[in-house]
Amino acid sequence: MPKHSLQTLHSIEALGVVHAQRGDIRIEPLEDRLTPRVPFPHKHDFFQLVFISTGTGWHEVDFEKYSLTKNQIFILKPGQVHSWKFSKNTRGLIVEFTSESLSEDQTLFQIESLPDCVTWTSSTGSPFTLLELMKNEADAQAVDYKRCLHNYLAVLLYQLFRYGNSTRKLRPLQEDLNRQFSHLVETHYRNQHGLDFYARQLKTSAKSLSAKIQRAYGKPAKEIIQDRCLLEAKRYLSYTALPVAEIGYELGFDDANYFSRFLRQRLRMSAQKFRQDYQKNHSDILSKT
Question: How much is the pTM?
Answer without folding.
Answer: 0.80
